[in-house]
Amino acid sequence: MTVLRSAALFALAALAEIGGCWLIWQSVRESRPWWLAGLGVVALGGYGFVAALQPDSQFGRVLAAYGGVFVAGSLLWGVLVDGFRPTRHDVLGALICLAGVAVIMYGPRR
After folding, report:
1. How many Å apart are CA 71 and CA 86, to the nearest integer?
2. d(Cα 66, Cα 83) in Å, to the nearest integer?
3. Can you tell me the mean pLDDT for 15-22?
4. Neighbours of 25 (CB within 10 A)
5. Predicted TM-score of the model (pTM)
6. DSSP string across 49-87
7. DSSP 3-state assignment of 108?
8. For residues 59 and 86, what is the distance between their CA atoms, to the nearest angstrom?
9. Exposed, middle or buried by CB within 10 Å (0-12, 13-18, 19+), for 1?
10. Whole-number Å distance between alpha carbons of 73 and 7
11. CB distance 102 to 70 below 8 Å
């Protein structure tokens, strides 16, 4: 159950961080309303709280592993929201990152 909880928290953290960054991007780069940037800042703050809920108590481990989730999640966000079409190398890189997440977070501990 801990792995499922952790994976769900990683997914929620990715949604908050990537969504927050995307909202700021829309405001600044795409000349969308300024308040989108404000919503983005709130979402980024939410990301910090979600990351803190991970069952593992080691900040460095959680954030290092989340980096891999961020890579894969960013590509997925691009596909779902912006119509991005990843190359096979993008997909391979994301899979390698997710394998790293699994090793860092869920590998055996002494």
Report:
1. 12
2. 24
3. 98
4. 15
5. 0.90
6. HHHHT-S---HHHHHHHHHHHHHHHHHHHHHHHH-----
7. coil
8. 31
9. exposed
10. 12
11. no
CA atoms within 13 A on the CB side of 31: 0
Pair of tokens at residue 7: 């994976």
For residues 30 and 23, what is the distance between their CA atoms, to the nearest angstrom? Answer: 10
Contact residues for 77 (Cβ-Cβ < 8 A; gap 6+): 18, 19, 22
The Cα–Cα gap between 40 and 49 comes to 15
Q: What is the mean pLDDT of residues 39-60?
A: 95
36 touches 23 (CB < 8 A): yes
